[in-house]
Every structure is written in C-alpha cells, then in structure tokens.
C-alpha cells in the first residue's frame, strides 16, 4: 500500500503541473446542430451531450475554446466532452462554490487521476477518493482498502487511515472506523442525465473528526457518483460520471 500511495503522490504532483496550464481559461460554446432528418442514434446522442454540456459548462467564444483545448490534452469544449464522455466527470464542491468538468489524465487499472478545468487534481481508486492536490487544504492520502468490497457486499465495516497537513506543513495521520450501509435506490441527477442508482452511506469516526460519505452504484457495482470528504476547508467533493 505504501508503494501505491507514493506512486499517487508522484503522478498527482505531475498532474497538478499539467492541470495548472488550464487555470483561468474558459470553454467556448461553439456551434452544433441537426435538421432532425436521418441522424444516426450515436450522432444524435452526441449532439444532445454537446447541447447539455454547453448549458452546464458555459463558455465565452470559439477562440478561447481552442486555446483551452490545447491546455490539457482532450480539452474541455462541449464537443470534446461529447466525443469521449467516459473520460470526463462533473465535479462539484459546494464549500468552494465550484462546479466544473474534470478530465481523466492518468489511469492505472482502477486508479485514475482527474484534472479539474481550473487546475486542481483528485485521485480515485475504483471510484473511492484517495488524494487531492491544488485546493490548498488537501487530502494527502486516504486508504481505500476494503471500501469497494464492503459496497459490493451490501455493507460492512472498514478501518481507514487519513493523512493531512497541519498549519506547519507537517503530516498528520488519523485512523477512522467506518460503517458502510445501504440506503436503497435513488434517482440521481448526474448533470447531463439522470439514473436510478443504489445508494450507500459511509459514516467514519476518528479521534477528532466525523464525516459521512455517499456512494451511488450501478447494477454492476461500479461507483457512478459519490460525495466524499476532503478536508475541513474543502469539505466534500461530489463527482459524477457523465
């Protein structure tokens, strides 16, 4: 586990440098349409995603959209999102007033790193948040072992270890006793679509901190959407698969 966490630290640092190149850029709306005649199903769905992505993510012009597209491979234009919707997520952090697209920039089996359009990064292991960088008050590492197994088994208890930084940039470690329990089926708004998913609540208690995560799973047991704790300042990060 230590080697995996160290690898996460390495590629998260590199991801943050890459993602910062996109900081301050805005996506452009572009133009796309159809006359509604003989449009293949895949094309029709892509055009629908383009329109919905525009309404969510906004923009200021085609020149800016081209520039943003070059900042991070794949870009954040509605057309790029429509072409590869599985590569993107919609990220929301209420405490920071943030809602924006994020793109997968690193993938190693179930482990992925997302780069938000504004620069910060977040790493997940099978959909379980394990680290963030670029928010200031970041989650250095959070063990994910046992969480997916408990979710797929219908619930359970796990012990998780969290590392954070204090005001002197010293790493603080705390252990949490976490209980994962099913909460039934729920209709979930994923940003550009709605899906009925199985909800699980995770309650974690440490020596000085209690937090509650939420996971929404599809029929295959994959995490489609989640709300997971980051830090006292950032609070919770919501991530939706498009």
Could you describe the 3D structure shown?
The protein is an alpha+beta fold and 242 residues long. The protein has a single domain, classed as YmcC-like fold (Beta Barrel), CATH 2.40.360. Helix content is 24%, strand content 43%. The protein is built from five helices and twelve strands. Strands 5-4-3-2-1-12-11-10-9-8-7-6 form a twelve-stranded antiparallel β-sheet. It starts with a helix and ends with a strand.
Give the overall pLDDT as a whole number: 77
Number of domain modules: 1
Terminal-residue CA separation: 30 Å
Overall structural class, as computed from helix and strand content, comes to: alpha+beta
Main sheet strand line-up: 5-4-3-2-1-12-11-10-9-8-7-6
Overall outline: globular
What is the CATH topology classification name? YmcC-like fold
Q: What's the alpha carbon Rg, rounded to whole Å?
A: 18 Å
What is the percent of helical residues? 10-25%
Unreliably modeled segments: 1-50, 52-72
